[in-house]
Automatic annotation (TrEMBL):
Protein's GO biological process: COPII-coated vesicle cargo loading; intracellular protein transport
GO MF, any single term: GTPase activator activity
Family classification: Belongs to the SEC23/SEC24 family. SEC23 subfamily.
Signal peptide: none
Cross-referenced SUPFAM superfamilies: Helical domain of Sec23/24
This protein's name: Protein transport protein SEC23
PANTHER family in the record: PROTEIN TRANSPORT PROTEIN SEC23
Listed InterPro entries: Sec23 (IPR037364), Sec23/24_helical_dom_sf (IPR036175)
Keywords: Cytoplasm, Cytoplasmic vesicle, Endoplasmic reticulum, ER-Golgi transport, Membrane, Metal-binding, Protein transport, Transport, Zinc
Length: 44
């Protein structure tokens, strides 16, 4: 059961990061968004 809970948290974090990345891509310059996304995914 702990494996399922850990996977769920990672999946939710991935979905949240994707939504934030799409928003930032719409509102900011592309290269800045890619740099930010790389940094955040490494941290995640």
């Amino acid at each position: 059961m702990p494996t399922i809970a850990a996977s769920f948290d990672q999946e939710c974090a991935s979905v949240a990061m994707a939504r934030i990345a799409v928003y930032r891509a719409d509102t900011e310059e592309g290269s800045d968004v890619l740099r930010w996304l790389d940094k955040m995914l490494i941290r995640l």
